[in-house]
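ugh finaly. both done.
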Amino acid sequence: MPAKADKTDELALLTAVVERRADAWNRFYKRYERLIVACIRKVLSRYGVPSRPEDIEDLVNTVCLQLIRDDYAKLRKFDAERGYRLSSWVGLIATNAAHDALRRRGPPTYSIDDEESGFSDRPAHQPTPAEVTLLREQEDALNRAVQSLSPAEQQFLRYYYLEQRQPDEIAELLNISINTVYSRKNKVRANLKKIIERMESSKRPAVGDRSA
């Protein structure tokens, strides 16, 4: 019931935003700001890119502009009938915005003084455009695989990975034990792996297929 009520509250807030009701956008931003920042930091951390406050602020502004652009076009595309939470949709937009920013970023430059001093603040790894593109392709494949899961499995993934809820909170929402949360996580991941393997196998040309 709490999850259902929360989803209803999200949809009511979404309606208020796209209808431009007073203070709706401020309430929307206050509710999802932490989620947007968390998604951005996660992408930057994955590539060893420092999460400088000014960069985070710029990316948050970029996400907000994407959300309000063209009369809230991205928010209007949200379809609750597909089973996703609005928070998951906002998180996906924030994640994609961070990937796009990394893809546009050119190769880093460093002062020779950094080399001589031995105290370079360069990140461990800067993603190349090819690496970011590959990651996006992998995430697209993962999203397609998720659609093949049962509604219950998709709900579990949203709670555990997209919304990053704590195991005890998930256990309470789904009325299961914490041990079941961990076992279900392993089961869902195994199912996803099988689906992705089948998808990859279907792409490979058959032996003797000269058209490949």
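ok and the 2nd:
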Amino acid sequence: MAEAGRKLSLAAWVWVLIAALAAFELVAHPLILAAIPSDESWEEASAFVRARFGPSDVLVAAPAWADPIVRYELGDLTSLRMAAPVNLAGVGRVWELAIRGATTRDDPPLLEEDFGGVRVRMWPMDSPALLYDFVEEIEHADVELVVDGERRACPWTQARPDRGGLGRGPMMPTERFICDPRRPWLWVGATVLADLDLRPRRCIWQHPAGTAPVRVTFSDVPVGERLVVHAGVDYGVERRRAHAPVTLAVWIDAELAGELVHHDGDGWSRLEIDTSGHGAQRATVRFETTAPDPAARLFCYSASAQTASNDG
């Protein structure tokens, strides 16, 4: 009898728990709905930003998973370079659209407004002035592949694009330098890479061919006070940490100015080269990629010539 009573008691508690969960859902459901901003809230917040947005401004979403909503509302304001910025060089202001109390910055904003749960905040940036964006200027570069000591030009070509994707790496743009049609990965051009943290990076695809370099040369570059380089390998292969390092050598005129050696696991690496003492205001800048084993070296980099600040 006691055992039967315990079974009945357990069954009763199960039903009590089910009833409690149902009651909680009834109470919590309207609260959850109330915490979700309406379409009208997003539209009002977007209109507020749109009326004040400048050509050097950038948009960020908080939390990060709200980014598609921000892109849907305001994506037409943002260039591809600003949609996947490498750093804040050349950025005048940061606009943040946030929900659920999330934020991307700890410092107080200059401006803050709330639109039914969508919070808009703005920060002015004292960021470096951007003199030259190598990614944006890639079409005007000279690209060549070294084969047995012989330099072979890679022509700028309109070719069939590739959407890329999971297991296939970044997208191949329609216009790009093709160094060897037999090796479809051996091209140079602007794309967007997913780094080790799955963040989009606007960059120059320059897959190494081996120990002989792939060379990209930019002429008449205003070098400014520093040359900032970022580089990485596509997330799909870098996360395995199983392949050879890639060396990116940076030459200014006839001098080796710096090297970035990227190992799988480094993530989005950074190299800063001081060019303040460079005698010429303009120079020839060359980027060379090599690897002891080029297999799966889905390498991409960005670079910019900068001055100290937008004020200077």
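summary for the 2nd one i guess: Residues 39-124 form one domain.
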